[in-house]
From TrEMBL:
PROSITE patterns: ILVD_EDD_1, ILVD_EDD_2. One of its GO terms (biological process) is D-gluconate metabolic process. This is Phosphogluconate dehydratase. Pathway: Carbohydrate metabolism; Entner-Doudoroff pathway. Residues 71-381 form the Dihydroxy-acid/6-phosphogluconate dehydratase N-terminal domain. Pfam families: ILV_EDD_C, ILVD_EDD_N. Catalyzes the dehydration of 6-phospho-D-gluconate to 2-dehydro-3-deoxy-6-phospho-D-gluconate. Its cofactor is [4Fe-4S] cluster. One of its GO terms (cellular component) is cytosol. Its EC number is 4.2.1.12.
Length: 604
């Protein structure tokens, strides 16, 4: 229960409801973590053969390990050099081992996890593995930490499903302290609005692949996170809001001296946290921290993907959070930031204008976020309202001050919007999410005949044939987690954007996902129950009138769905490894619960 005197009434009410709803599962989780902490073996009681295997590869640290007493930090890395954001991680372990020795500790790479780039698989068959890569990462994290040789954990991951997966896995070892170590965004390239313009010209056939590739390469050009405010950068925002970073670490670029000092501070802090029950991951990720993550998402206009990831991460910590909670929070949390695709500037401009330090300071001062959460750094979130810098060679913090760009960041007293721009819409077509922060208010309500499709290529073909040149609600069904792994449908944004620019009233309704790059087209996404198995979308037919209204929170059709037979479920797609994930699809639960097969199978 909150003891913060100035906390907003709605945030207090939602927090109280989440705490009360979660009490049985949260108590069971904390009890398990206490048991795990109590039975964690002292190194002196572990078989010498076991220890020898664990120490054999640590050539430079063997003597320290054999002597005992030094904290050992486990590194779980999602490194690969196909993801620009993760490319810098290649050299991190050797540097982190040096930083650990500075603090009288040791560090070992506990294990690696897969790491997909959704930007590479957009519109391709591989995208159907994307969401369940999160659960695979959680399982890989569990395998890495199962060796029980670590006193704390450094998590190396940034992008879309990777941070949620790392957190879900690490929370099952929540008796240990854990800290996320980002590597930062790439420098700004081609302005995002220009990139969007070229994409739409290509969709209209007005430029070719040469021009399109030049534009894309100008945007995604070097190591570091992509600079638009998509799921990857929303992940970093949430880790700050939950107090799981070194303060201000989210958006410092790779290869800089400040980045290096933040990384050093992360390792030193993990060494200092050894044995701390109060700073264990289980205690840091509580109901208030989950609420803070949602508040940050709303205040910054972050990725719609987190309407799925936040409930899943919460469940791994014994916390139950749903879309009603998210929508109610949205009614109270003002939109403080406009970062592309909700504005013209990117995350580098956002950081230069004050960034996360400014956002957190405004939220705390206005009573719009929980200050009283334990963080990896301090007793509450206050330290995260400052910005990092260097005092000579040493990491130092300073006050943020006023926004450096009122077109990018505004105070809570004068926001871009009075609400956070994430609405729950529901009706006889189910429950879905509508991100209003990127959509003009005149498009909050769309009522038009629908066209029903069962895959993205069919939509693109209909667009090219001119069949969609009208007011239309495009319905793309059988895209849910149990059907095909719930791929992002971001490749539909350019053609639908073209139709909208031609003057038509256009919307998208789907049981699939869009992404953090979702833009100006109204969309009801993550529709649940999904079409597979007879959900309401499966009873829609071409020409049915569909109404989507963010203002009233409705998603409905005038068609009599009860008298219709559902469309037949599609056959399982094969190839690109999709058949290997059939067990995940079969066991996945609904989008609002987090669409997680591993949590559902574990009864969490």
């Amino acid at each position: 229960m909150s003891t913060e005197p100035h906390l907003n009434d709605t945030i207090h009410r939602v927090t109280r409801r989440v705490i009360e709803r979660s009490k049985p599962s949260r108590d069971a989780y904390l009890e398990l973590m206490d048991i795990e902490a109590d039975r964690a073996p002292e190194k002196s009681s572990v078989s010498c053969s076991n220890l020898a295997h664990a120490y054999a590869g640590a050539t430079d640290d063997q003597a320290t390990m054999k002597a005992g007493g030094a904290p050992n930090i486990g590194i779980v890395s999602a490194y690969n050099d196909m993801l620009s954001a993760h490319q810098p991680y290649g050299r991190y372990p050797e540097r982190m081992k040096v930083y650990a020795r500075e603090a009288g500790a040791t560090a070992q790479v506990a294990g690696g996890t897969p790491a997909m780039c959704d930007g590479v698989t957009q519109g391709e068959d591989g995208m159907e593995l994307s969401l369940f890569s999160r659960d695979t990462i959680a399982l890989s994290t569990g395998v890495a930490l199962s060796h029980a040789m670590y006193d704390s954990v450094a998590m190396l991951g940034i992008c879309d499903k990777i941070v949620p997966g790392l957190l879900m896995g690490a929370l099952r070892f929540g008796h240990l302290p854990a800290l996320f170590v980002p590597s930062g965004p790439m420098p700004s390239g081609v302005p995002n609005k220009e990139k969007q313009r070229v994409r739409q010209l290509y969709a209209e056939g007005k430029v070719g692949r040469t021009e399109l590739l030049a534009s894309e390469m100008g945007s995604y050009h070097s190591p570091g996170t992509c600079t638009f405010f998509g799921t990857a950068n929303s992940n970093q925002m949430m880790m700050e809001m939950m107090g799981l970073h070194i303060p201000g670490a989210a958006f410092i670029q790779p290869g800089t001296k400040l980045r290096q000092e933040l990384d050093r501070a992360a390792v030193h802090r993990l060494a200092a946290l050894t044995g701390s029950k109060e700073r264990s991951l289980a205690r840091c990720v509580d109901e208030k921290a989950i609420i803070n993550a949602a508040i940050g998402l709303l205040a910054t206009g972050g990725s719609t993907n987190h309407a799925i990831h936040i409930p899943a991460m919460a469940r791994a910590a014994g916390v139950i959070f749903d879309w009603t909670d998210l929508s109610e929070l949205s009614s109270a949390v003002p939109l403080l930031a406009r970062v592309y695709p909700n504005g013209s500037g990117d995350v580098n401009h956002f950081h230069e204008a004050g960034g996360m330090g400014y956002v957190i300071g405004e939220l705390l001062d206005a009573g719009l976020a929980h200050r009283d959460i334990p963080t990896v750094w301090d007793d509450d979130l206050s330290a995260y309202a400052r910005e990092p810098g260097l005092d000579g060679e040493v990491l130092a913090y300073r006050e943020v001050g006023e926004s450096g760009d009122n077109t990018m960041l505004r105070p809570a007293a004068d926001p871009f919007s009075a609400d956070g721009g994430m609405r729950l819409v529901e009706g006889n077509l189910g429950r879905a999410c509508f991100k209003t922060s990127a959509v003009d208010k005149e498009r909050f309500t769309i009522e038009a005949p629908c066209r029903v499709f069962e895959d993205q290529p069919s939509v693109t073909a209909a667009f090219k044939a001119g069949e969609l040149d009208q007011d239309v609600v495009v319905v793309v069904r059988f895209q849910g987690p149990r059907s095909n792994g719930m791929p992002e449908l971001h490749s539909l944004t350019p053609p639908l954007g073209v139709l909208q620019d031609r003057g038509y009233r256009v919307a998208l309704v789907t049981d699939g996902r869009m992404s953090g790059a979702s833009g100006k087209v109204p969309a009801a996404i993550h529709c649940t129950p999904e079409a597979l198995g007879g959900g309401p979308l499966t009873r829609l037919r071409d020409g049915d009138m569909v109404k989507l209204c963010a203002t009233t929170g409705s998603l409905s059709t005038t068609a009599d769905l009860e008298v219709r037979e559902p469309a037949p479920d599609p056959r399982l797609a094969m190839g690109v490894g999709r058949e290997l994930f059939s067990m995940f699809r079969m066991n996945a639960d609904g989008a609002e619960q987090g669409a997680s097969p591993i949590l559902a199978s574990a009864g969490l």
